[in-house]
From TrEMBL:
InterPro entries: LpqE-like (IPR007410), Lxx211020-like (IPR058248), PCuAC_sf (IPR036182)
Name the UniProt record assigns to this protein: Copper metallochaperone, Cox17-like
Domain of life: Bacteria
Pfam family, one: PCuAC
Record-linked PANTHER family: BLR7088 PROTEIN (PTHR36302), COPPER CHAPERONE PCU(A)C (PTHR36302:SF1)
Organism annotation: Nocardioides simplex
């Protein structure tokens, strides 16, 4: 298994980690096609400041800013890494009682043409669950993003220590 994530997908649209969801740092520009687009559209998606919250076990999160410089929307529908069993695209929403909770993001992360989407602690993020090894500050993790058209792009994310974003799942569970 890889101990490092690749910084090209996190920077612009990767996920935040909770108590594993947390809060990125190398400019990662990689070509990634828009949904149903030609290979030329692949260059439209970049990720800036991708990072992963350090965690010894359990789960963590990935963050960054997904930037779409193209003329068509791009959708990130899935993500994987070599340091965990399951990765989910998460959003943070307000419950009826006013508390905040995270849940899987139905339909993926849509980055509008000419726009961006921040993946950040307390907001949209990539949740890395079932860590298979410690994710230590100062290392890197390669995140593979899958786009709506089935293409993939890799992002190398720096692992950082972060104390924050102790969100809860919408069904009451904790990260």
């Amino acid at each position: 298994m890889k101990k490092h994530l690749t910084a090209a997908v996190l920077a612009a649209a990767l996920v935040p980690a909770l108590a594993a969801c947390g809060s990125g740092s190398e400019d990662a520009r990689d070509q990634a096609p828009t949904s149903g687009s030609s290979p030329a559209a692949k260059a439209a998606l970049t990720v800036t400041d991708p990072w992963v919250k350090a965690a010894p076990s359990g789960m963590t999160a990935a963050f960054g800013t997904l930037v779409n410089e193209g003329s068509s929307d791009v959708t990130v529908v899935a993500a994987t890494t070599s340091v965990n069993d399951t990765t989910e695209l998460h959003e943070t929403v307000e419950n009826e009682d006013g508390s905040m909770a995270m849940r899987p993001k139905e339909g993926g992360f849509v980055i509008p043409a000419g726009g961006s989407l921040a993946l950040e602690p307390g907001g949209d993020h990539l949740m890395l669950m079932g860590l298979t090894e410690p994710v230590e500050a100062g290392t890197t993790v390669t995140i593979t993003l899958t786009l709506g058209d089935g293409t993939t792009t890799d992002v190398e994310a720096t692992v950082k220590a972060f104390d924050g974003a102790d969100e809860k799942y919408q069904n009451g569970g904790e990260h």
